[in-house]
Amino acid sequence: MADNTLQWSPDFALKWSDFQAESNPAVFEDSHSVIKYRFTWTVNSEKIDDQIVFLIEDIRLFAEFNPLLSWVRLSAATDLLLHHEQGNFDLAELIKNENMFKLQEQFNGKYFPTRGKNEEQRRQFAKEDSGKMINAEVEKLQQLYDEKSLQYHKETNYGVDTKRQFEYDLTFKQLRQ
Predict the structure, then answer these.
(1) How far is Cα 123 from Cα 115, in angstroms, rounded to an integer?
(2) For residue 161, which phi and psi values (nearest 5 degrees)?
(3) What does the pLDDT look like over 19-68, one tens digit per residue?
(4) Are the C-beta atoms of 80 and 169 separated by less than 8 Å?
(5) Distance (Å, rounded) from C-alpha 84 to C-alpha 29?
(6) Parallel, antiparallel or unpaired: strands 111-113 and 35-48
(7) How does residue 174 score in pLDDT terms, banded at 50, 70 and 90?
(8) Distance (Å, rounded) from C-alpha 167 to C-alpha 64?
């Protein structure tokens, strides 16, 4: 768990008490989940010939729910809607799993040039530059999740279409096994 976020795991389920922001009376939705990706990685540098290069290794990605930005309209806080919001969190994990290999393959075993006038600067810039490179790819993944999340809400009518919600649930169930 980073800061005040809840990290997805197969044995964790959202509760309405996790939705801590004030509801927004100006929007149509009865609830709103803020789910983002966080990443960690290792960066190593090597000297090849006379050039210092860095490698990006061990990228890890986490789907996280932000309680302080997520809300529910109390009059709409039903088990059906909570189940749908859990599905939204599960969707983030599913997309992460489907794209993790591709993300890692973009960097694994590749050398990237670094900048800086001395070894300490090069290390610092390697950390900074590698973080920016990974972040650019994670932002693309976040955008994909945001698009799929809108599609999920629309197709299930926020869980009201129980037939379509059940179809999604079958997919999400595989995450928990």
Answers:
(1) 9
(2) -80, 85
(3) 999 998 888 899 999 999 999 999 988 878 877 889 999 999 999 999 99
(4) no
(5) 13
(6) unpaired
(7) very high
(8) 23
46 to 57, 107, 116, 174: CA distances (angstroms): 13, 15, 14, 41
Of residues 11, 35, 55, the one with CA closest to residue 144: 35
Residue reference for tokens 């994990």: 93
| pLDDT digit string, tens, across residues 116-171 | 888 888 888 999 999 999 999 999 999 999 999 999 999 999 999 999 999 999 99
Cβ partners under 8 Å of residue 21, min gap 6: 32, 67, 68, 69, 70, 71
What tokens appear for 145 in the block? 């999740």
Handedness of CA 174, 82, 142, 152 (dihedral sign): positive
The Cα–Cα gap between 60 and 34 comes to 20
Q: Cα dist. 110→55, 69, 97, 104 in Å? A: 6, 37, 22, 11
Q: Among all chains, which residue has been given the structure tokens 């096994």?
A: 177
* pTM exceeds 0.90 for this model: yes
